[in-house]
Amino acid sequence: MNPANQRRPLLGRVWVLPLVIALGAAIAVAIIKSQPVMEHQAKPQPPTPARAVELQRHDVRPSVIGFGSVTPDVLLDMRAEIAGKVSYVHPQLKKGVILPADTLVIEIDDSDYRLALKKATATLAQNRANLAEQQLALKDAEQDLQLAKQKLQLAETELVRFEKLLTRGSVAKSSVDNQRSAVLQTQQEVQTLQNQLDVMPHTTEVLEAQIEIAEAEVQTQQLNLQRTQIRLPFNARIAGLSVEANQFVGQGASLFSAQTINKVLINAQFPLAKIRFLARGFDLKPNEMKALFDSGEDPSGLLQRLGLSARVRLAGDELPVSWNGKVERFSSNLDPVSRTVGVIIGVEDPYQQIQPGIKPPLIDGMYMEVELQGRPQPYWVVPRDALHEGELYLTGPQQQLHRMAVSGFAQQQMLLLDPNTAIAAETRVITSDLFPAVDGMPLALSPDPDTQALMQDWLEAH
C-alpha cells in the first residue's frame, strides 16, 4: 500500500490537531520556566559637557534707544517792523552761511523816517514852548489877582468912608454911588482873574499831555529809524532769504530766517514700555511730583531728580562718535502714528565739536540715535546668547540642569532680569547649546572665559 494513502486517514481525524497544539504549548511553558529571572540593571548616564558663567547681581544703568531728527533750538523768522524800500542786503546773507551776532544784514531806506523824526522833534519843541508860556501867564495872573484884591480892599475902604461922610452931609450921594460902582467893577475884575487862574491848571495839564504825546511820537520815530537797520540777535546760520535789494517790503513782511548754532534739540521717540523700564529708577514719589507742578518751579530740578542722561549718535554711522545730551523735557502727547513717547534732548555747542570727516556739526534734519540712560539699579545680568526660546538653562551646586522661563529687558549683548526673580544662590548660567536639554540631567561644567570677559567689559561700560 502507498504511504501517502496511509497518512490521510490519520490527519483527517478531529482529535489529532488539538493534541499537537496542547503539546507545543506545554513544551514552551516548560522552556520559559526553566530560564533564570531577568533583573534590570540601571546604567549611570554620563554627564553632558557644558560651559557656564556665574550669575550675579550688578548695579547697572539701564538704557533705551530712540530715534529723532535734529531741530534748531531757536528758528527765527525775521519780519519787517516798518514799511519801505530795501536799500542794503548783506552780500553773505545766503542760505547756509554762518554770521556773527549784531551783523547788519538788511537796511531799509530811512529818508521818510528821518523827516518824520524831525517833524516830531519840532512838534515837541513847540509844545514845550507853549507850556513855558502858559507857566509865565499863570504867574502874571496870580500877580494881577493879588493887585486886584488889594485894589478891591482900598475901594471898599473908600466906600465905607464915603458912606459915613454921606450921613454927615459932607459928600453928595452921587459920589457914594460912583464909589460903589468902582467897588463893583473891582470885584468883577477880581472874579475874572480868579476864573482865569482856576482854568489855567487844566490848560497846563493839556499842554503837558501834548508834550507826552509829542515825546512818544519822537521815541516812535527814533525806534522806526532804528528799525530800518536789521541786525542778527545771535550767532546764526541763515536758513532762507525772502527779499532783495531795491525791493519794497510792507510792515510784517518776511525778510529771512535764521537758526541758533549754540544749541540743537532732538525729539527722540521711545516705546512706552521702555520708558516704564527706566521709570523704575525715578527718585520721585507721586505726591512730590504733584507738589512740584503746583509750586510752578523750574522743571529742570524735577528732571535732575529723575536721573536721566543721554548720548547722541548719528543713526547708522559706524564711527564711534557721539555727543553728550541733556534731557530738556518730555513731549506733551504720544506720537499718533508710532504711539511712542517723545523726549526732547538738548545738545550744547554742536558746532564747536567738529572733527572734519569724523564728527560733523549737528544741522537741521539730521536723523540721530539717542541712548537714554537711567539711574543705576540692581539687576541679574546674563548674556542674551544664553536665552533659549524664553528660557535660561541654569545649574546649581549639584550640577544638574534646570530650565527656567524668564522675561527681561535686552541691553545690547546682555539681558537684565528683575532682581526679585527667584534665583537660588551659587547659580550658574549655561552658555553653550545643549541637545537634548532635559530637566535634571547631569552636567560636566567648565568655565567660559570669553563670555565672562564680555560680561565684564559690558559691566564696566555701564
UniProtKB/TrEMBL annotation:
<keyword id="KW-0812">Transmembrane</keyword>
<dbReference type="GO" id="GO:0015562">
    <property type="term" value="F:efflux transmembrane transporter activity"/>
</dbReference>
<feature type="transmembrane region" description="Helical">
    <location>
        <begin position="12"/>
        <end position="32"/>
    </location>
</feature>
<keyword id="KW-0472">Membrane</keyword>
<keyword id="KW-1133">Transmembrane helix</keyword>
<feature type="coiled-coil region">
    <location>
        <begin position="124"/>
        <end position="231"/>
    </location>
</feature>
<dbReference type="GO" id="GO:1990281">
    <property type="term" value="C:efflux pump complex"/>
</dbReference>
<keyword id="KW-0175">Coiled coil</keyword>
<protein>
    <recommendedName>
        <fullName>HlyD family efflux transporter periplasmic adaptor subunit</fullName>
    </recommendedName>
</protein>
